[in-house]
User: What shape does this take?
Amino acid sequence: MYVTVDMEGATGVTHQDDVTEGAAGYERGRMLVSGNADAAVRGAFDAGATHVLVNDAHHAPPPLTVSRLRS
Assistant: This one.
């Protein structure tokens, strides 16, 4: 399964500061998008997927915190 995520679409992202590197809310935004990706990965495995590839579609450096993804 292929999952693509982008900060602007993450649950709870409500302000430009949540998606702008260096802004006050950026770390919060990173946690939110990582949590959404983790939920998608867990759901895919729960539904029977054997492999899941996650793409961070935001920008460099990627905001997705890989260590927050559970397998």
